[in-house]
Every structure is written in structure tokens, then in C-alpha cells.
Design goal:
Strand content: under 5%
CATH class: Mainly Alpha
Structural class: mainly alpha
Helix content: over 70%
CATH superfamily: Flagellar protein FliS
Number of strands: 0
Oligomer: single chain
Number of helices: 5
Distance between the termini: 49 Å
CATH topology: Four Helix Bundle (Hemerythrin (Met), subunit A)
Length: about 130
């Protein structure tokens, strides 16, 4: 049996040792990556590539939505964002529309950047 390559080991360790906040950040990063790959697929006229990566993005958004803790008031804001993104992803996939995917990526980057800022503030608060 071959040993997993170093990158696989690193990636696995990164996930296994991540905090819940870091895992959420990784999910945002993955959704952005797959959304970008879907746009590349459209540019290359590779509809299968576009479709498969839109589906991957949808799965991440749906997972984020399913794991929301609704006991926090801000969770409803995230729910609204995820419902909107999910609806737009379905529309982008049906129409194979790069503009919609670009809009989705912008929203995902905005949410990711906000999440990173919350993580940074929480780290600073923990040091105080």
C-alpha cells in the first residue's frame, strides 16, 4: 500500500485540527474555488466542467445552510444569503450564465472576508 502524498497528509491534518470557524472558512474558500472553476468551464465551452463545479458549490452552500445554529439571531441573515445563493446557482446552471456566477463569487468573497474579519476580532478579543 502506497503512502498518501505529502499534500494529502497536510490537507487531512489541516482539516482534522481546524476549529469550527476555520472549517467554515475552508468551506467558503472551496465554494469560491469551485465557482471560479465553473466560470472557466463556461469560458472553455466545457459545459460538463461548469455543471459539475456549480453542483459542488451548491453542495457547500447547502451544507453551510444545514449546519446553521438558529439560536443566534445572525443565523437568519446567513440563512437568507444561502437561500439566495442557492437559488442563483440553480439559475446559473440552467442558463450556463457567467454573469450570475460572477455575482455569486462576489457574494461569496464578501461573506468570506466578513468571516475572516470576525475570526480576527475574536482572536484579538481572546488576547485581551
Amino acid at each position: 500500500m502506497a503512502l498518501p502524498n505529502k499534500y494529502e497528509q497536510y490537507s487531512n491534518n489541516k482539516v482534522m485540527t481546524a476549529t469550527p470557524a476555520e472549517l467554515t472558512l475552508m468551506l467558503y474558500e472551496g465554494a469560491i474555488k469551485f465557482c471560479n472553476i465553473a466560470m472557466i468551464g463556461l469560458e472553455q465551452n466545457d459545459m460538463e466542467k461548469a455543471h459539475n463545479n456549480i453542483i459542488k458549490t451548491e453542495k457547500i452552500i447547502r451544507y453551510l445552510r444545514e449546519t446553521l445554529n438558529m439560536k443566534y439571531p445572525v443565523a437568519q441573515d446567513f440563512e437568507d444569503i444561502y437561500v439566495y445563493l442557492d437559488r442563483r446557482l440553480v439559475e446559473a446552471n440552467m442558463k450556463k450564465d457567467r454573469e450570475i456566477l460572477n455575482e455569486i463569487c462576489e457574494h461569496l468573497r464578501s461573506v468570506r472576508d466578513t468571516w475572516k474579519e470576525v475570526m480576527r476580532l475574536n482572536r484579538e478579543k481572546g488576547k485581551a
